[in-house]
Amino acid sequence: MKRSFLWVLLLIAMCHTFSQNNAETQIKYLSGKGKDSMVLWDFYCSEGMNSGKWSKIGVPSCWELQGFGTYNYGHDLPFEKRGHEYGLYKHTFSVPSAWKNKDIKIVFEGVMTDAEVKINGKLVGDVHQGAFYEFKYSISKYLKYGQENLLEVKVNKTSANESINYAERSADFWIFGGIFRPVYLQAFPKDHIERIAVDAKASGAIKADVFLKSKSAKQVKLYLQDIGGNDIQNLVVSQLEKGKDKWSISSFAKDIKSWNSEHPNLYYLRVDLLDAKGNSLHTISQRIGFRTVELLAGDGIYVNGQRIKFKGVNRHSFHPKSGRTTSKAYSIEQAKMIKDMNMNAVRMSHYPPDVHFLDVCDSLGLFVLNEVCTWHKPKLDTEVGRKIVKETVIRDVNHPSILLWDNGNESGWNTELDDDYAKWDIQQREVLHPWNIFRKTNTLHYFHYHGLANDGPAKDKIFFPTEFLHGLYDGGHGAGLEDYWLRMWNMPTIAGGFLWGFADEAVVRTDKEGILDTDGNHGADGIVGPYGEKEGSYFTIKEVWSPIYIEDRFIRNDFNGMFRIENRYHFTNLNACKMTAKWIKFDGPSGTTDFKVIHESAVELPNLAPEGKGMFTVKKPESWQHADALWLMATDPHGQEIFTWTYPVQSPKQLNKAIIGYDTKGKVTSKIEHDNIYVSSSNMEYVFSNVTGLLEEVKKDGHIIPLNNGPIIFNHKDDIEDITVNTVDALVEIRVIFKRRSKSSDWEKIKEYSSDKIIWTIHPNGVLDLKVEIKNEKRVKSFKGISFSFPENQVAEKKWLGDGPYRVWRNRMKGTQFRVWENEYNNTITGVSPCEYPEFKGFFSSLYWVKVKGKNNNGFTVYCHSPQTYLRMFTPENPEGDERGRVSVDFPEGDISFLKNIVPIGTKFQEPITTGPHGNPENFFGNDDDPLSIELTFEF
User: Fold this and answer.
1) pTM of the full predicted structure?
2) Domain containing 579: what range?
3) pLDDT for the residue 17
């Protein structure tokens, strides 16, 4: 009796399980799910690598990256001259006999470019055109149930539709061939929900269009579920009318949390299709977020009633080893990096992404512009364009992250398609024309800084640049961003904008021994490298776009502990964040710990609503004036670092005084022979020119350290008046005095410059001091500073105390941190593979000391006692393909320099001067009465 009862329970459970499974959509993948889980299919390629024979290929993939066909960069050649490369795919699969009474569809998430699909030798529908769009066919009648089935796909790399080719294959990005996104089967019950479209407002109001295929359904029920899939509210029960295949339902959800980029709260909307007896025919769950989007003319873009400043980037779906084939893990990785830069938005340039990237934007919180692929002119033709718009909107309509649709890119839009989005979008999102004044917006691209005056005839439009500050090589992105953003943040009708672009698009060339190829200067425009390597602009953006804005300030002896702060969040109170203050003591050049924390305390952030301004105070321990630096690290409500701001406490002279060893033991001697001055002390030998006063040779224990030919004073034309050698208090001093020059201050006065000086001091233990005084000017357009020669091939690495670890430009100073850094020599040209970051060469700000480790020599350490001095370490090589020199910077003479000013860098489309005040080559030093002084100490 007991056993019978157990069997009954088991039978009930089995029937319940079957009923539940039978009421849900079943999925069977025929391919892998991404670049890391491909499934082998039979493959034949018509032209190029490994063509003319059947072999195997992983699906999904771009066939070039699997060693087939021919690589093409979009606008290198007209598409009509690229041949007629195609690929043939074959794959066998089985479907269970239990599926015989189901409605089965085959789904292709993306095929480049025209796809012809056959099942068991029969064509299942029209050839699909357009690479980046999901399409599907009903295939129930073509299948053999419980048996093997043959899937055949012919993929033409070049489309039969001319406008598709211009839109997708003549664009400014790599173009590929292949089934590059997943392929799978969907098995629906005969009575089923085809799809739903949802509009969930921040108020809790819900509208849903339920698209049905059913003869037996009588009711539709909607339930709200939490993100764990638990029912939290019954929303509505709707009785169905016969013959209708679309059912519109309205309801209201109580006590919901709205979705936004800072708090991406998500729910599931479960929809049950029921028969007359209340049995479930089909159940689906759709993830949703409650949010309201408004474009208010002449005002701005609002989400949930809050006007938004978009801090965005343009992103391609791309991986160097797999092309357009990516993965969910890769989407998560890239979205996290975008969020880490304190961005809140991403534009899908220039095509809809993988659906998993949109899922990640929903869950992590990124505002999205979703885009249909077009490229300049001619426009996408209306017939195929309408299909593409429909496919895009139907697939992506329910993502709360998508705020707006882009109808193409840069004059490639077809205006006949503008109103098609609304036909399929229950949310009625607005449509943009990137790089055009259209309806409520002006999405101007690559405008000069003065364009932010926004005083033209379209000044009543919402200024919303969908591309600005092009990041070719090391230019753009961070360079100029501080100037742009100061204006953009404070101008009401500017809604923010999008940098170009996220990552260097360098592809692995399987036909060229695996080199990384950016097609010259076409793909080298990322904030990160092809594998996510962070360039200097990454951290500049992170600071400039920090939602916690702290005014620049300097810590001096009268520091009161107060900082002025602004909450630049849109939806988060500032006191939801945390900040820690650390007072730091640094180790010296020979140290092994770099730094230690001598005091740490929590900072009480003020209760500031979004866009509010206020102050906070850092506790000052009794020993604060003995600290070397103050670090302020802020974390967001999710525990992620926002940024760490660093402030020197000691002046360079104060800090260095404690670590330089001036041993008075020993004796220093000097002699003059012919044109040279010879100085010996301890184990050091120096040779100076008695004609120029420059250091000519350094020996330690008889071995040459190749630092010489300095200090060269930049742009210096004065003649030497006198060189003297004196022994003073057991020290040898070499003093070089230059002749005074005068200038005409006005017609009545003659103003005399102070004379320039070079003063060398050699100590008994071999330590070498240098003081250089240079006449000052109020306005400076040339380099001010000094330089030495040191052979680049004799340097192994550098260790320094100063801002780092990345180099700076005059218009890209943000993003560095003041601490001890170290990196090995590299000859990286930013954006040109292979790359090692951070770059070894360039300008580095706030130098206190630098230890240069030599190859086959002892190297040296130099301490800089002069505040606000830049280290110049060699001259970076200029990239090719920069014909106008906008991202190629002129460096001063010499190899290792110490400067009081540096130069800016431009962008692909702009000279530095057009990127804002920091891009101007002119500096205002403000005082031509007192000389500029650079004081250094060398230890060898």
Assistant:
1) 0.95
2) 553-562+571-635
3) 32
